[in-house]
Amino acid sequence: MDYRFHLDSPLGGITLASSGEALTGLWFDGQKYFAAGLSPVAEARPLPIFEETARWLQIYFAGAEPDFTPPLRPVGTPFQQEVWALLRQIPYGGTVSYGALAARIAEARGLARFSAQAVGGAVGRNPISLLIPCHRVLGADGSLTGYAGGLERKAALLRLEGVPLP
Fold it and tell me: Fewer CB atoms inside 10 A, N or C side of the chain?
């Protein structure tokens, strides 16, 4: 059974999804790929995982780095899972380029190169925004590119974390 919960944030409404035990989705209302994979009959119900995620978001939007992470269970292909695991390694207030992520995948696979565009596709389909920090990925020149929640939100999130923007 899928469950959903809606809450408000300083950057707009957020919809959360869960299997009951772990967070499976976190989307800004109206973002690209909104609620991808969430059953249309997901039951709206408050759950402990939603309360824990709301507490994480409250700390985050207050401008602090939460010292815990709710249980996460993003659903995706093995390649997407590989990319999302790399995203979780980007520290609060840090950034990385799509090319740098592609280089890490290439190295792990023993390849000379890997496609930054393929990495970008997986980053864009991240179903758990914020907690899996896809907003910390920038273009090769440091530009703000490709955020499913919108570039204005991406800039706001990076400013919140103290990242200097061009």
Answer: C
pLDDT tens figures, 124-151:
999 999 999 999 999 999 899 888 888 9
Which two structure tokens, joined as six digits, stand for 85? 């695991």
C-alpha 164/C-alpha 109 separation (Å) is: 33
- Cα separations (Å) of 150 from 36, 44, 109, 153, 163? 17, 26, 32, 5, 17
Tokens of 119: 């990495």
Where in the sequence numbering do the catalytic residues fall? 134
Strand-pair partners of 7 = 14
- Residue corresponding to tokens 């490709």: 146
